[in-house]
Design brief:
The complex is a heterodimer of chains A (about 400) and B (about 130). Chain A has about 400 residues and is mainly alpha-helical. Chain A contains 14 helices and no strands. Chain A is elongated. Chain B is an alpha+beta fold. Helices cover about 40% and strands about 15% of the residues of chain B. Chain B contains 6 helices and 4 strands. In chain B, helix 2 packs parallel to helix 5 and helix 3 packs across helix 4. The radius of gyration of chain B is 14 Å and the shape is globular. The chains are: A mainly alpha (about 400), B alpha+beta (about 130). The interface between A and B is medium-sized, with 26 and 18 residues.
Chain lengths: ~400, ~130
């Protein structure tokens, strides 16, 4: 690098390497100023730079200054100008010595600051990388623990409020798909609930309201379809409630909400009902209860049969493969049970909408949406509550 | 296992505790002469659910147990009753299969839907399964 350059000539060099608009000012200034005549003294300054590294840092310093804007450049220009006028042009060499030493001090100060900043930056980076490495190790440990726990048949986690654990990713693609799709479904559901709330508050035509109602109902039906596919992939995943939040799972029945409970939640929020509507609702509540009881008892029977099938020929039968195979067949009925439960949910929603007008149905859907939202919030508060020390 | 139900009608009714099972030949007769007939595999839990639903309405359905021996022949008979076109479309009859008033009503889903919508009771009445 050519040392025959000062803080001004480098700017020209910078001009070649990095076209910065401010450079023009520097070079203009150089041409128009006393500094032009100072070339010999400036050469003198260069000789004080005995350290090439320092010079490079100095260049970088200058880059920074230029880069930080016109203001900064203007201020420097003004400063140097004022220095020029205040000292007068009496004895160039003397004045230049002072100037140069002052500038030198500034440069040294800037260099020192830069060094300090660079050192701090390096330390911070080191600390951050260290933290990342630790987190990575911890994550690997946790994943191993989880894998072990799963293999022992202990399901960990409670659906969305504890985050998406790696169960699906490591074992079942069908379930992974469902988990993702369900996450989107919940987001959509919250959006639709908010839209419905706004729509009911605003002046909306009955026709528009009916499209809201249809949309809301179809969204629930979409969920039942998703669950049907997931049940084929792993019905026990659905039954275990791992996809639901803890409060939802606590209140659930055969892999989802209990229809009769739903009707009880909805009823007070449908607004005034006609006598006919009240009667229909009461009949529906009863039919729902009967259907739920029938399905529950059917499921209990399945438990019984499964247990008997597995236990057939205990204590002595060396080969139990026939029993296992028989039990496998029985377990397939589980998929049908979850399907029937969802079918009941769908039929209940359809039936209640048949008996209500659009506004009532919309209010019902809104109440439903908010109810499930509250359950989800309850679950996340429960999960993050401060634990009492034992 | 299922309990033996006190059927009042036919000497042909099956009991699922391994009693005298009817042959497939009697299938058309069963369907024609009984208001409600359920065809289901032995020990099927879905059949249990249908039965409970119908009991809730005061209906005593006739239940035909299907086991491995008679499954093929029963399926054949049922397909004949349903009509070849429908049977072909469905592949084979889904079990449990519920017949009301001599005609195929459907499976558990259809019964459940009719139960919720309130259409089941009029239909049962029409088939003389109910007198109230």
């Amino acid at each position: 690098m050519n040392f025959a350059s000062t803080q001004f000539v480098p700017s020209r060099r910078m001009g070649i390497c990095e076209p910065l608009p401010q450079i023009g000012m520097w070079s203009d200034y150089k041409e128009n100023n006393y500094l032009d005549t100072s070339t010999p003294a400036i050469l003198e300054v260069d000789s004080r730079f005995d350290n090439q590294v320092q010079f490079v840092l100095f260049i970088i310093c200058m880059h920074c200054l230029v880069f930080f804007g016109h203001m900064l450049i203007n201020l420097c220009v003004i400063y140097v100008q004022s220095e020029d006028t205040s000292h007068g042009i009496v004895e160039p060499s003397n004045k230049y010595d002072q100037e140069v030493s002052k500038t030198n001090d500034k440069q040294l100060r800037r260099l020192a600051q830069n060094r300090e900043a660079a050192r701090k930056c390096r330390l911070r980076k080191k600390a951050y990388v260290q933290q990342l490495e630790n987190s990575k190790l911890r994550l690997m440990q946790l994943e191993q623990e989880l894998e072990r726990a799963r293999q022992q048949g202990l399901y960990v986690g409670g659906g969305l409020d504890t985050g998406q654990l790696g169960y699906s990713r490591t074992t079942n693609p069908g379930i992974a798909t469902f988990e993702m799709a369900y996450g989107h479904w919940v987001e959509e559901q919250n959006k639709k609930t908010a839209d419905l709330r706004n729509a009911l508050c605003s002046d909306i035509t009955d026709l528009e309201l009916s499209s809201f109602v249809d949309d809301g109902m179809n969204h629930y039906f979409d969920l039942f379809l998703m669950k049907e596919t997931a049940a084929k992939a792993d019905v026990f995943y659905l039954m275990s409630g791992m996809w639901e939040t803890s409060a939802e799972h606590f209140l659930s029945w055969i892999g989802g909400f209990r229809p009769s409970e739903l009707l009880k939640v909805l009823e007070p929020h449908l607004g005034p009902l006609t006598e006919k509507q009240s009667l229909e609702l009461s009949n529906l509540k009863q039919s729902c209860q009967q259907a739920e009881d029938a399905l529950s008892q059917g499921l209990e029977r399945l438990h019984q049969i499964l247990s008997e099938t597995v236990a057939d020929g205990l204590l002595g039968e060396g080969n139990y493969l026939p029993q296992i195979n028989a039990a496998l067949e029985k377990l397939k009925a589980m998929v049908r049970f979850v399907g029937q439960a969802d079918h009941l949910r769908k039929e209940t929603l359809l039936q209640i909408s048949r008996n209500l007008n659009n506004r009532q149905a919309a209010q019902g859907l809104l109440a439903l949406g908010e109810y499930f939202q509250r359950l989800r919030v309850l679950s996340s508060f429960w999960t993050s509550r401060p634990r009492e020390s034992s | 296992m299922q309990q033996a139900l006190p059927y009042i009608n036919l000497p042909f009714t099956t009991t699922s505790n391994g009693g005298a099972t009817t042959t497939a030949v009697e299938v058309p007769k069963l369907v024609a002469e009984n208001a409600v007939v359920i065809f289901a595999r032995s020990g099927c839990c879905m059949c249990h659910v249908v039965k409970l639903l119908l009991h809730g309405h005061g209906v005593n359905p006739t239940i035909f147990d299907i086991d491995e021996q008679n499954e093929a022949s029963v399926t054949g008979e049922l397909s004949k009753i349903i009509g070849i076109g429908e049977a072909k479309a469905a592949g084979r009859p889904q079990f449990p299969a519920v017949f009301v008033g001599g005609k195929l009503f459907g499976g558990l889903e259809e019964v459940m839907a009719a139960h919720i919508s309130g259409e089941l009771v009029p239909m049962l009445r029409k088939a003389r399964a109910l007198w109230l």
